[in-house]
Design goal:
elongated; disordered N terminus; disordered C terminus; 816 residues; 14% strand; five-stranded antiparallel β-sheet; 25 helices; alpha+beta; single chain
């Protein structure tokens, strides 16, 4: 075997095996440092966990706390919350003018779309309040954190810093979630931030800005830039200049410190600062800034056609009440809800008020120097004293008081006579209304013309007994009636209350009282206490003189229940009491349980124009914000009397003013020769005095007395001139408001004729009647003709029935 060519394999060389890699050895640490490191790491982990939990808790809290917001931040409907406007017809131009705004105690707002609001006004707010408005998500976290550090940890700024964005300010405007301190303040801020973030995600910046500009608050109850523009500059917001825009934006910072009326210098400094910011941020030029800063602060003068005062007129108060009640009926809601709807619904109310007449009446009722209504004062006992009361003081300067048996402390205040006046036309439109004397100092205060009932006294005689007596054909112009009591003392029909009270007989029945002849009295008496002279008088004379003895006989013919049904149902005097007022004393002499309001009484006298009655009302329509009819007044019109009766009664009531025996003789207004009619009224013990008068244009009721019925003879004396106080005020008012009106006559009736009548018999005058006068009669119901005979011994004509002579002395006549 050849082995020389074969390779011989050698075994590998044995080398050293590679070592396995070892873990790097840590450098030994000091045990204390090791412990601190582990603790710090643990704290950081715990901090992260706590912060995470706090964040989750904060979000959970914010979500839960705002879960009941509902429509609170619904900007799509926020425009619905705006003041309602009252408009009236300008009597000179016939145009609709703004008369008043129905504002709550919290706000007065009229909405303006963003397109109407000048860019300068938008940026006047943005540049000063939130310059990053368009670039932030509803919250400026940098400013918020800085403000929190400055407030709670370290004073890094020289003063307290605000961090609220426009979204956050809007939230404050729309919610009652107001500022607080401490923990509650922090929670409120958390709620506000969460709401702002949600608001920013839900709405565009333009929608948010529009809502903000319409809800921002200014002085008083003014809200929104449209209202501010109108109040301060008498302009629509779209017409504002640069400096006016900056002025409006300045007020909101601090409405008290920057009030344009009380702190104009502060306001100018703030205004110029805002324009400087706008220049620095490139919104306006330097020239615009300097020109604007040089402008003086010029505010609008008061508009005399608009009630800009925060105190509403008596008419506006009554209008508010009427519309609220109609909303309650329409929507089936309570009064509070209806008021809220009216305050925030943005309605336009077409009112019946005549602004010129309202102003004239307000000026008259200021009663400066007691020009029309004398001031009678008396002390009144009360259980509490208000700031408006004139408290009675002792000589030593301490309050006059009395302590009752039960420990109640009674105080005393001095009260004075008050008055009310209201005017309607013959379509039931309330044209003017004033419910008290002197300057009105509060909105929705006591309105004596609209909401306070008083006994009518003799003013009820013509609308009840006399009108129905003529309507039913029971009496006519010259019907002879006896001027004596309907019931004599010996008839034992009418109790003498004073005698029974003094002699302890009040508890006896009528049958038991028959044993006491002096416990009875004759009834009725005339004004002044007389019982008449027993003579026969024609009806016209008894009405002109307001003799109770004549009126009660007419009422007895008609029937108390018939009178009550007519005035209660037909003339809508629904404040009368069906349980207690169906009687001759109540229905003829006017001593009702409650009585009626001046507005209702004036409306009842409409029937003496043409016989038609229309429910009194203060508005014609209420329109919603889109111009649709939301409400129409629910007034009703109907024929209450025939035109014939209405005209006869008109002529009868003319004698109250124009005859020589009328209770208001000679006190008719001198208005271009136009005629008028009227009736005086005095409640028992002169607690309420009245006059209701009509002209061819208007019917007006005037009341005078104390708020709590009190005998005015105790404070003003027994003076018959008091009964003419109301008619004198009416005369002055009518002469003013009718001064420039064209002549107008009362409508006549074809069914009424003028005839001469015999003053002896009251029948139509015959050929031999020695004394005649003229009367008005229904053509289809004429009296018989008198057959006077000299040989029959008929008495001579009575002097009381001579033809009326205006201005003749009436001293000593019975008046009402």
């Amino acid at each position: 075997m050849n082995v020389s060519n074969s390779r011989r394999e050698e075994p590998p060389k044995r080398g050293r095996a590679p070592r396995e890699p070892k873990e790097p050895r840590e450098k030994a640490k000091h045990p204390i440092l090791r412990a601190l490191g582990r603790t710090l790491a643990t704290l950081i982990c715990l901090g992260i966990m706590v912060c995470s939990l706090a964040a989750v808790a904060a979000v959970y809290y914010a979500v839960q706390a705002t879960a009941n917001d509902g429509n609170l931040l619904d900007l799509d409907n926020i425009e619905l919350s705006q003041s309602s406007t009252v408009v009236a017809t300008d009597p000179d131009t016939g145009a609709q003018v703004e008369y008043a705004t129905l504002r709550s105690s919290n706000s007065h707002r009229v909405w303006a779309d963003l397109e109407q609001i000048p860019t300068n006004l938008q940026y006047a707010f943005i540049c000063t309040e939130d310059k990053d408005f368009y670039n932030e998500p509803g919250v400026n976290f940098k400013r918020t954190i800085g403000a929190m550090v400055n407030e709670y940890l370290l004073p890094i700024y020289s003063s307290k810093q605000g961090a609220s964005t426009l979204e956050q300010q809007l939230i404050k405007n729309l919610t009652s979630d107001k500022s607080a301190s401490g923990v509650e303040g922090a929670l409120r801020k958390l709620r506000e931030i969460y709401r702002a973030l949600c608001l920013s995600r839900a709405y565009s910046k333009e929608t948010i800005l529009e809502a903000y500009l319409n809800t921002i608050s200014f002085t008083g109850t003014i809200q929104g830039v449209q209202t501010a523009a109108n109040e301060y500059f008498n302009k629509d917001v779209s017409q504002l200049t640069l400096w006016e825009c900056a002025t409006i934006a300045s007020i909101t910072k601090n409405p008290t410190n920057y009030n344009p009326y009380t702190n104009p210098e502060n306001l100018i400094h703030r205004r110029n600062f805002i324009m400087y910011n706008m220049w620095q941020q490139g919104i306006i030029s330097e020239e615009d800034y300097r020109n604007g800063a040089a402008q003086p602060l010029v505010l609008a003068e008061e508009d005399t056609n608009k009630k800009t005062s925060s105190v509403s007129s008596y008419f506006t108060d009554a209008l508010f009440t009427e519309v609220v009640h109609d909303i309650m009926d329409k929507e089936g809601v309570d009064e509070s809800t209806a008021q809220s709807m009216l305050y925030t619904g943005g309605y336009t109310i077409e009112a019946t008020v005549n602004p010129k007449m309202q102003t004239a009446m307000e000026n008259l009722m200021l009663n400066e120097g007691d020009a029309y209504f004398p001031a009678g004062w008396h002390e009144e006992e009360v259980t509490s004293i208000s700031d408006d009361d004139v408290q009675v003081m002792n000589a030593d300067g301490t309050p006059k008081t009395r302590t009752g048996d039960d420990g109640t402390v009674y105080y005393y205040r001095n009260v004075r006579t008050q008055a009310a006046m209201v005017t309607l036309d013959y379509d039931g439109n309330v044209l003017a209304m004033v419910g008290g004397l002197g300057e009105k100092t509060k909105s929705l205060s006591l309105n004596r013309a609209y909401s306070v009932t008083r006994q009518t006294g003799s003013t009820i005689k013509p609308i009840g007994a006399y009108a129905l007596g003529v309507e039913y054909g029971l009496v006519n112009w010259s019907t002879m009636l006896n001027n004596s009591p309907l019931y004599q003392k010996q008839d034992m029909v009418i109790r003498d209350e004073d005698y029974c009270r003094k002699n302890g007989l009040m508890g006896l029945s009528d049958s038991q009282l028959k044993a006491y002849p002096n416990a009875w009295r004759s009834w009725p008496r005339n004004y002044g206490g007389n019982y008449g002279d027993g003579s026969d008088l024609p009806l016209w004379n008894g009405l002109a003189r307001s003799l109770n003895t004549i009126a009660i006989r007419v009422g007895d013919l008609v029937g108390a229940s018939n009178i009550f049904n007519f005035v209660y149902n037909t003339l809508q005097l629904t404040t009368l009491d069906p349980a207690n007022d169906v009687g001759l004393a109540q229905m003829v002499m006017g001593s009702q349980t409650h009585g009626v309001t001046p507005t209702a009484l004036a409306a009842a006298f409409q029937i003496f124009y043409d016989g038609e009655y229309t429910t009194p009302h203060l508005y014609t329509r209420v329109l919603d914000r889109d111009g649709n009819i939301y409400l129409e007044n629910n007034a009703t019109s109907y024929q209450a009397l025939t035109p014939q009766t209405a005209y006869i009664m008109n002529r009868l009531l003319k004698n109250v003013l124009y005859s020589n025996v009328g209770t208001a003789s000679g006190r008719y207004p001198n208005s271009n020769g136009m005629e008028s009619f009227g009736k005086t009224g005095t409640a028992s013990d002169e607690k309420d005095l009245w006059f209701v008068g009509g002209t061819p244009y208007y019917v007006t009721a005037v009341w005078w007395g104390y708020d709590a019925p009190y005998d005015m003879t105790n404070t003003l004396g027994k003076n018959q001139a008091k009964t003419r106080t109301c008619v004198t005020a009416w005369k002055a008012y009518m002469e003013q408001v009718q001064a420039n009106l064209p002549y107008k006559a009362f409508p006549t009736s074809d069914g009424v004729v003028e005839r001469a009548y015999c003053t002896q018999s009251g029948l139509l005058a015959g050929a031999n009647c020695p004394s005649r006068a003229t009367g008005y009669y229904r053509a289809d119901d004429l009296p018989d003709t008198c057959n006077y005979s000299h040989s029959s011994g008929v008495a001579a004509a009575q002097s009381a029935d001579t033809a009326p002579v205006v201005g003749q002395d009436t001293t000593g006549l019975d008046t009402d």
